[in-house]
Amino acid sequence: xxxxxxxxxxxxxxxxxxxxxxxxxxxxxxxxxxxxxxxxxxxxxxxxxxxxxxxxxxxxxxxxxxxxxxxxxxxxxxxxxxxxxxxxxxxxxxxxxxxxxxxxxxxxxxxxxxxxxxxxxxxxxxxxxxxxxxxxxxxxxxxxxxxxxxxxxxxxxxxxxxxxxxxxxxxxxxxxxxxxxxxxxxxxxxxxxxxxxxxxxxxxxxxxxxxxxxxxxxxxxxxxxxxxxxxxxxxxxxxxxxxxxxxxxxxxxxxxxxxxxxxxxxxxxxxxxxxxxxxxxxxxxxxxxxxxxxxxxxxxxxxxxxxxxxxxxxxxxxxxxxxxxxxxxxxxxxxxxxxxxxxxxxxxxxxxxxxxxxxxxxxxxxxxxxxxxx
Length: 374
Description:
Strand order of the largest sheet: 1-2-12-3-13-16-14-15
Order of helices and strands: HHEEEEEEEEHEEEHEHEHEHEHEEH
Largest sheet: 8 strands, mixed
Low-confidence stretches: 9-15
Strand content: 25-35%
Radius of gyration: 21 Å
CATH topology of the largest domain: Aminopeptidase
Number of helices: 9
Mean pLDDT: 95
Distance between the termini: 66 Å
Structural class: alpha+beta
Shape: globular
């Protein structure tokens, strides 16, 4: 039976929704597609095809970061960035009796793996598999073994290594969890890899708004969907040197801390549905941060605050410390259950992040000097 697409309402409370039926269709397709770190090309093609009508030109770098550019001849350059890659697993070892052991590709969570279904990307196409786990009846209650990288494994229905290899599976193939995007209680977007393809979606919607509203900005805007964030901000490092921007506004996800088992003392007090989160920290340029906060106040966009300490852990750090220093700031989207198959973000927060980036861009002046010591 063919899977039915999501047909939920996109209207937010108290305001006209930015996300329309076409953009929601793109979001569903984009989230359901696999884009593991180092193998992002299929998702990047989807993103480029969507954003292409809203930009003047685009570029793709050697490792697959895609940049849609508005006003590319302008000397002053503003980056609006998200990252495109998702966590996954590398096939690491195939046993003689056909079981597969793995290595992480990014921060994949071994604790949630048992009984999950996976899609293994091979040169011949997708091969289905499952994370096996001993039945409760066969485990020792006195010495319960918990999932670890030493004992989780894939079962693809084979009994020998040769059978596995005949399916096209080899060491180095990547596997992602199988699931589908949906809308929960007409309130949350739910799915795998919202970290951070929801960011790619939001910046694409900003590009769409600029084009459809016929906004003319006096600088170049570089909508950047970077690869390889999950293994150390590598895509952002590369593209920052290529673009050499004057300003960078980064969007990523952060933790909603309202669910059980999360300490607010450790992780802060952040909530889905309460608006975008702005970060304080050394990588965040204070005048650019003030601009975001002032913009939120002017346009009545709710927002929250978090302290990032030494680093933000996002592509903000890569841009901030590139090219002798780039004025950079981070707008985060609260998310529940990060690095699982049931990541959740509030629809209204998505709308507010889009609005905040859009209005913040409109408030930047060409040639603006962000320094606060003169």
